[in-house]
Design goal:
This protein has 66 residues and is mainly alpha-helical. Helix content is 65%, strand content 0%. The chain contains two helices and no strands.
Length: 66
Amino acid sequence: MAKVNVSLDAELVVDVMVLAGVGSPQDAVELVVRDYIARGHRTEARVERTDQNLREVEVRPQDPQG
C-alpha cells in the first residue's frame, strides 16, 4: 500500500493520542481516519435502508370524502 506523509500540529496529534489511548502518533492518526471511514459507511448503510423502506411502503388510496 502506498504511504503518504502529512504534517499536523503537534498538540492536535497529542490530543488524538490521548483520546485514542495509543502511544504512537502514526497509530493515533490512522485510528481516527479508519474510524471516520467506518462511520461514513455506517451512515451510508442507514440511509440506504431508510430509502429502501420508504420505497417499500405501500401507498393506500385515500377514501373518498364528502
